[in-house]
Amino acid sequence: MQFKPEFIDKLRSAKRIVFFTGAGISAESGIPIFRGKDGIWNKMKPEELTNFAAFMRNPDLVWQWYQHRRDIVNKAQPNTGHIAIAEFENFFDVSVVTQNIDNLHRRAGSKNIFELHGNIERNFCINCHTFYNSLEIELSNSAPKCSKCGGLVRPDVVWFGEMLPQDEFSEGEKAAEWSDICFVVGTSAVVYPAAYIPITAKQAGSYIVEINLEPTEMSRFADYSILGKSGDILPTILEEVKNFKS
């Protein structure tokens, strides 16, 4: 695979890199996407299961939906794209700002991760905010109760109508501002405010590299768009880095 000389020059001089990732990279690990022609949102209405009112109306149904998603995530493995991103840390100061909730970046070995939409492996009580990981609660088909106060325990994910975790977003935004290169990987970048991350990077002078299967809204902002699977493209870029860093 031949890359633009300008891009290779940017890689050679870069010190800080941000990877802004979305559902596309997880789809390569077998986790269904939510948008696009085969997305889950085409088969169901998100407002029926992914907001707080729906959870209070029928907590067991919402919990079962997330149990189904946990089962998919637990069977999935980080792919070569996730692993390459983690290996970039051997050569650069790397931050991962992700919209995904599947924890695959951490399982692949990435260390500096900002999760904009939460993490499906964490849960918390809606009353006293005690946190539980998936090993600390009984993962049955009924929404569990908090062992401290008896309140309902919900997944620690951002539902429709909820704010992003401000510390994760602000730190991700800061990493984007400081980056020399911002890779936008496997995302249409149309979900705001998360999509402000690559725009912030662009405005601060970062070189924007889009990696996706097809052109997106982000393509017109990108300095360089590479079409294809991130699991093929990112390891190839990493090999280029190893060649000139060795």
Overview of this protein structure:
The protein has 246 residues and is α/β, with parallel strands linked by helices. The chain has 2 domains: 1-31 and 78-117 and 165-246, Rossmann fold, CATH 3.40.50; 32-75 and 119-157, SIR2/SIRT2 'Small Domain'. The chain has helices at residues 5-13, 23-27, 52-57, 59-75, 80-87, 104-108, 166-178, 196-203, 230-245, and strands spanning 16-21, 93-98, 113-115, 118-125, 131-133, 153-157, 181-185, 207-212, 224-227. α5 (80-87) packs parallel to α9. The protein is elongated and about 60 Å long.
CATH topology of the largest domain: Rossmann fold
Q: How would you describe the shape?
A: elongated
Amino-to-carboxy terminus distance = 20 Å
CATH superfamily of the largest domain: TPP-binding domain
Q: What's the CATH first level of the largest domain?
A: Alpha Beta
Query: What is the residue-averaged pLDDT?
Result: 91
| Helix percentage range | 25-40%
Number of helices: 9
Q: Radius of gyration in whole Å, from Cα?
A: 19 Å
Number of domain units: 2
- Structural class given helices, strands, pairing? alpha/beta
Secondary-structure topology with pairs:
Layout: H1 5-13, E1 16-21, H2 23-27, H3 52-57, H4 59-75, H5 80-87, E2 93-98, H6 104-108, E3 113-115, E4 118-125, E5 131-133, E6 153-157, H7 166-178, E7 181-185, H8 196-203, E8 207-212, E9 224-227, H9 230-245
Parallel strand pairs: 1-2, 1-7, 2-3, 7-8, 8-9
Antiparallel strand pairs: 4-5, 4-6
Helix pairs in contact: 5-9, 7-8
